[in-house]
Known about the structure:
The structure is a homodimer.
Chain A: E1 10-13, E2 20-21, H1 22-37, H2 43-52, H3 54-62, H4 71-85, H5 93-100, E3 107-108, H6 112-122, E4 124-129, H7 133-143, E5 149-152, H8 153-156, H9 163-173, E6 180-184, H10 187-195, E7 199-203, E8 225-227, H11 230-238
Parallel strand pairs in A: 1-4, 1-6, 4-5, 6-7, 7-8
Antiparallel strand pairs in A: 2-3
Helix pairs in contact in A: 1-2, 6-11
Amino acid sequence: MGRRSPSVKALVFDVFGTVVDWRGSIIREGMRFGRAKKLNVDWAAFADAWRAGYKPAMARVRSGQLPWTRIDDLHRMILDDILKKFDIRGLSPGEIGEFNRVWHRLRPWPDARRGLQRLKKRFVIGTLSNGNIGLLVNMAKHGGLPWDVVFSAEVFRHYKPDPETYLGSADLLGIAPAELMLVAAHKDDLFAAKACGLRTAFVRRPLEHGPAKRTDLNAERAFDFNVADFNHLADRLCGRVAKKKG
Amino acid sequence: MGRRSPSVKALVFDVFGTVVDWRGSIIREGMRFGRAKKLNVDWAAFADAWRAGYKPAMARVRSGQLPWTRIDDLHRMILDDILKKFDIRGLSPGEIGEFNRVWHRLRPWPDARRGLQRLKKRFVIGTLSNGNIGLLVNMAKHGGLPWDVVFSAEVFRHYKPDPETYLGSADLLGIAPAELMLVAAHKDDLFAAKACGLRTAFVRRPLEHGPAKRTDLNAERAFDFNVADFNHLADRLCGRVAKKKG
């Protein structure tokens, strides 16, 4: 683990939780929205409920219960449901639509932009997210994320962790799976990528689910790198110190 | 023509000829390659022959004579053919493969990078090219082209001017066709986009086919803009002068 990988040509990144802080961003926007609309809501619980609806919604697509659906529309279905559960009433369709687009405005973790800028100098960098293209492009504009390319489940018509997403990214870049590295804060995503022959980098994001939730942050020997953040990954992949003399 | 378009949200660009100077780039690399290999070749004629093979090759895919083929592979088929025609012998497969990738290293027109940087501040900017994703990503890296998103015929499994490419780009961005503008130096591309409801900007590239070839550079009323280069387009779309006082 942690050896230098001269053959890696491109890095693709999981986005929700790995690049951006979805929970903190939703809480912040929710609180602002709640003040404006005089709502009394536990926005942390609201954010967690919204995110919790995500995997079951994708499973309905995978099983064929729903046709192919972009994440914007899955987010909206879940939102309509939890607005009821949290007893939030009286919003106009326009207000609900605008709030649903909070996912387009998620904020990068503090290290993300700088780390990506450093990695971009040596590698092709891209997303590999279940989020739809429009969402990812707007998020990058909003947060200043300097992607070279935006890959999404939407292009492959398969969600991660289906192999089509990992192998499809390498194929579209015209490189071998072993020349592509997935960077993610989620071990299941990384193990699936590894099974397809990709290189892997695990990034610890201890606050993804909030300070109270304990998540498995242990390094895994199975991964090529286990790092604290994107700058740490850039240190490892691009070199932190000047080259030794002679 | 030429009115401001506040509703436009994204611009997609034809690439070969519109953003980059394929002919000058191939001539330059050809001359360097020819000196190193002591070849006596008319590289301008070579570049023209390579490009001339492009539309017939795509037509073979469209007609079903060839299965879906990425442009890298079409370029290689044409290259193998014209190497014979120009009596260029004795190259290794590695040398031919490397020379085929000249299309990944095409140089932007002098205004392109700066114009795109200006347009990127106000709009989502992307490619919409028949070139494959890997080619476009490498070209952007090489030439410093700041795309927000890279769309390619490869994603849609249709070449321009098929409607799937124009409508598919708007769909992936989650916007209406009328909110998307195609920027191109080729009128057939622009007319096809317009027929799909896109906005259009014609960019004059008088040197695309070399100084001797006359091309139709006349402005068309059918297009929203007719401009001299990307900076001119940015002047028109983003405003050239400071806002008037109160």
